[in-house]
Amino acid sequence: MIAEYPVALRLPVKKQNDPMSVSRSSWSLLLVVLVALGAAVLLPLALASESRLVLYCAHDQTLAEGVIRRFEQETGIQVDVRYDEEANKSLGLTKLLLAEKDAPRADVFWNNQLMGTIRLHAEGVLQPYRGSGWERIPDSFRDPDGYWTGFAARQRVYIVNTDRMEATAEAINDKLQQPSLQGIAIAEPLFGTTLSHYCVLAEQMGFDKLQDWHHNVRQRGIRVVRGNSMVKDLVAEGICDMGFTDTDDTFAAVDAGSPVTMLPVRLETGQAISLPNSVAMIADCRHPDAARRFIDFLLSAETELQLAAGSGRQIPLGPVDRSRLPEELQPLVEWAADAVPLARAARFHAPVADWLNAESTGQ
Predict the structure, then answer these.
(1) What CATH number should be reported for the domain whose range is 52-153+275-334?
(2) Number of H helices, E strands in the chain
(3) Is 190 exposed, middle or buried (0-12, 13-18, 19+ CB in 10 A)?
(4) How confident is the model at residue 318 (pLDDT cuts 50, 70, 90)?
(5) Contact between 63 and 306 (Cβ < 8 Å)
(6) Class of the 154-272 domain?
């Protein structure tokens, strides 16, 4: 039996002075040089690609910048940030991420709320990551598969002008039961944390009862204004006795010396409403390693403490050294620990928003 050799071994051998042999040797050498040069160029580029991060951020720029700069200093990773300057910045960036789904530009989305982030998960925009940051956040504020994680929350509260009424749960309940609600203010619930508040109410009491409540308070003359900061201003100036707003707006009034305080909005279950920031990794992002490092950084105890120390006094959700928290945040940590989970309420985000938009346009 004749052994079968590889075809290359049966090719005729060229003579040394064969010009074709010299030419092929030259091309082979050139190819080796080009490959080496390519590797020398591409390897640093590959390494540099993970020294950069593209972040879409719906959090207030004045509060987010300090966190981002600290990340850059500690890691050497450059962060290119896109903020949305519109009033409803969370919704604007959510829409942008949906539009870019098939060709994503962002690596990470830092949302100042949670409902829109959960919607992005449902639309297939996100990819899961369960790192050290995810592990330290309680179950009620994170996706079990790691598609999103909440941190550094605001609380829905009643802001009360203490010169005009007593700041007790009983006094607030009596005020809400009066025939006229002209002394109470609430933000338009088309967007922002008031929309999230409505989604929680829809999940807790049912969509039909939410609609009944909405129409009832309007018929009784509740003052509807553009946003939570306007609610804060009306109460701080004594134009309204109380209102629905967030902890960060109330702290702004307190810092300005206004005669106000706050009590948590409580559901029928007795639970409070905590609305955290959220962070998520974009599917098929270009800098996944840098994205993971930023997400763990953002969800760390040190970052939650940094945000708690800021003007917004955002409430840590994971374990932190409580002695490092501002004194006024101590009771709010307890409120947040007893807050209602938000994942089920997120199912009502689209139907509630559609209904409210139809109401506002008269359709």
Answers:
(1) 3.40.190.10
(2) 14, 10
(3) middle
(4) very high
(5) no
(6) alpha beta
